[in-house]
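Entry type: protein chain
Record version: 2
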Amino acid sequence: MTAAASDEPAPSAPTEPLYVASRASEPDIADFASESVIIFDVEGAIQYWNPASEALYGWPAITMIGRGIAHLTTRSENEREHWRLLLQEGTWQGVVSRRMPSGIHVVVDIRQYVRFAQDGTPRDVIEYGRQSPGDNSIDSAGWHIPDRLMAAGWEVDVSGAEGLIAEIAQLRQDADADEKLLHARHVELVEAARIVNVNERTMRLVGGNRGRDLMIGQPVAGFWPLESRMVAGQLFADAMLGKVDGAAYRRQMPSDGILRDPLVTVWRAEKPGRLYVAVNGTVDDDRSYIYLRASEARYRKLVHHMPVALWQVDASHMGRIYNDVRATGVTDFDAYLDEHPELVDLAATTVQVTDVNRAAVQMLGGSGPLDLMRPVGYLFTIARDSLRNVMIGRFKGQESHHEVTKIETFDGRVRDVRMSVTYPKQVAELDVTIFSFEDVTEHMSIEAELRQLQADFTHAARISTLGELTTSIAHEVNQPLAAIVTNAETSLRWLSRADLNIQKLRELTTRIAASGRRASDIVQRIRGMAAKRQPERVAIDLNDVAQESLLFVRHEIESRSIRITTDFARDLPRAVGDRIQLQQVIVNLLVNGVQAVEERGEGERQLFLRTGDESGQLILTLRDTGSGIPPDDVERIFQGFFTTKENGMGIGLAICQSIVAEHGGSISACNHPDGGAEFRFAIPIGPA
């Protein structure tokens, strides 16, 4: 630092300086000063560097703390002499020339004061500085330092990318090197670089709601605009491969949506493998910076206090893997993961959680956000298939993915959660995936109880229906039993004859066995309807189910002289459902139809049963020739406990509706134009 001695007498050192700067205070009052305020220790190492110093000299504070004053000047002999006099006399005022990151010098008026310890020895030096009026000075009458003068400062660690830097050096020397490959390696260098520290402006511009602590240790690429990563990688490599210590490398970059025409400067730090990065530029937004900061603060507060647990995840490296897999022609990623299950493990151990809110910490029982800031595997310890589903959704290019899964808390509890994943858009600059988890454990428990209650009602309705069909069931069972008795008595008579007819006895025995099997089938059908069991979804033929249902009410139909006309469509596709439950629906509709025809008395006594398929659904329609449904009751007929029968419970049709709904279908009722009522239900073809 070259000192131009002032003609004015140096003022005596004040007992206390104008600004009392202490690194322990946060925020420090000197942070709001319009003058540059710097604190040196007695050896000349910088201990404090306020925002006005950044604006004046262009060096971010994180690059200056700990540096010697000689870093600002190349004239070390004069600097040492000036420093010796300062410590002797306690104060100094004059004009100095200081070096900026660009290499040019700025002329500055400074005042320096020595602060002494209680024993009289020098403790530190406080310097106040302002650009000399004759050197294109900037008006700093107000306390606020314009945002455009402040650099976004980064300290970056590239020590883990030594091999990559060596490869870049080799490619640069090779005249025939592939430019695309070299550009790709520059981008990889930014992805490999890790954040060691950032200043306030960097945190405000790109840290979002994460803050400094949560940015440290993360890849630089996660916060750097996509379109300028290659140029940033070039600067990183230039600084690491440069021969001159402290040499600065800079590039003007295009506006990135954050800063307007940012100027990026990179130079090596004293510690091996470290870089300093300074980004200067004006915020690329029409609104004032104060407004933007207030808006961001509201956003952070909103996210922090949202009742839904949120995780922010950096899966950018997995995106590149998906692109590589897609480039090989893979379209069925599900099958690909069957062959490469290690890819799911890779995602679990390398996809990093970069931010969480308060609800996430509370859900898992953590002590703070840092407990959750690690690879996402802990979210899928007992539901690894859910992570697989998330990966498949990302590979397919979905905007989001939703499912109900399970998660284990830090204290070992298992919770049911509704997981929603929002994937980054293809054009997004930052590859950020958002996970949200909603605890639905209590909701799932209530749903399970409701399902059990519904199953109990369904079972009770089947028993009630079987009770109404007691006469028909007895008739159905009696028919094969009567045949068994008749054929057995005939066999005995043939056995008493002297000339045994073996062929006749064989025929009679065959009839007995067939009747026994028929009786057994009837009992099995009744037991199936009466049993209390869990639904079993299998592939079913709707025609077979309808024909079996008719066997339950055949006697009811025949004994009342009701004619039934059936029209079963050929080659019906299969559906997936519970055979017994669908039988229950059809039997209930048939019984209601029989009762409707019976109640009408005189007139045509007919039922029409038809099956078919349309629009991807299987259709069953049952029409009777009864008196129809009263118009006021059509909308209420499927309501629970609504009935028009004197002794009815009003649960039959309500349960029919719930069964059909569980199969993904619908049921409806109306009055047919030719008279009578018509019921129609539809269930999806194929897996429900």
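Comment: Residues 1-27, 136-147 have pLDDT under 50 and may be disordered.
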